[in-house]
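Example record used in the benchmark description.
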Amino acid sequence: MDFVTNNVESNSFRRSRWFQIGRAVNTDPLADRALADARPAVFWLDRPDRPDPSPALSSDLDADLVVVGGGFTGLWTALCAVEGDPGRSVVVLEAEATAVGASGRNGGFCDASLTHGLENGLAHWPDEVRTLVRLGDENLVGLLDTVERHAIDCTPEHTGELNVAVTPWQVEGLTESAAAHRDHGMEATLLDAAQTRAQVNSPTYLAGLWRRDGVVLVDPARLAWGLRSAAEGLGVRFFDRSPVRSLRTETDGDHPAVRIRTDGGSVVADRAVVATNAFRSPVRQISRYVVPVYDHVLVTEPLSEAQRASVGWSGRQGLSDVGNQFHYYRLTPDDRILWGGWDALYHFGNRVGPALEQSPATSRTLARHFFETFPQLRGLRFTHRWGGPIATTSRFTCAWGTSHGGRVAWAAGYTGLGVGASRFGARVALDLIDGQETERTGLAMVRRSPFPFPPEPLRWVAIQTTRRALQRSDQRGGRRGTWLSLLDRFGIGFDS
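Model output (structure tokens):
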């Protein structure tokens, strides 16, 4: 099979796109025109039917379980808790509103993988990877069953994912990935350049790997809102705009308990799950293992019939290229293109906040890459642009822990693949606080913490050094270099 077919056009695109990494671009008329009217808002959340936030906590309450964080992990924790034990009283405290964090800002790729892809699972847990694949598949089935049972209108599309190579060295990586998937009983079809472009028409594609199963595209905000509605229907109480100021254990009579305070009141509970992910947490331990990196996204106006025909994409797969710096993209239900990724921006001191959500330089870079990928769409405009923090660990997968004498559990660090894995993360956290020894809690991925990030200023230095090394690796045909090879040796890294 001839994967690297020809051609002068592809070579020119590779030079313009992949060898300009990190170079400042002050102006780009095509990108600037396309971005001129883009709203600094999240497409999924920019809707007139967006639910109103719940009132803030304004009194003292008692509960069996309190959940800190109203994103996917917190929502799944609450829903699974009451579905598993209908008599359990559960309170969810959210600093802003449901889905305003990564849960509402992502691309909507709901992947069965719990390990940030098969290859990462093989690198870290080769003896458990078949179990992890099975558990991931079961988790996705359970997620979709919940969507159906509760009639959650998140428009799930069973499209699978197409990973594409845009440089020759990435073709070799796709070939190895296809073999690894087949060795583990997973379907993955390797496509040459012509076959890939027949699926989605871009002159930059040299090969593709199509996983028809294991990835479902969803509307992430509607998934989150639907999970919340389902949990509320089962008695879970939600309080938005209630940032947690302290968490401590105390004795309620003869019974140990957890007290969580907000500005307006407190909740005393038997157990707590902290699901703050990339945001500041009342459990300091989490910041050793998790760093927030900013990912940025663009969404186009709806494509016309002619534009759709020029791109093809009849399978509506989710797409991702496979460089160290990569893009992910998909069609939305109304035939826009969501286009994100590339930069993973870390701000000194684990800093997050609204001031960091817009990056004109990054948006311009994304727009330029978009039109290099789809030159036939020149003239298309972007309607939305946004950014937000993703929580990553040094092994790119979720981490768990307990504190306060085992009465508090936490889960964080999905590294961009939390839409599906957050359900698994929530169930592990519930197992931990309930003292349940399960197949999930017996996993090495759960029992062993990732390699911690160093404190500042070494944290910032290490992350920036790694970012530059990843850029150089892409420029040098995938060669890892001394720094990345050292990180590989210890099974650690940095990603988004």
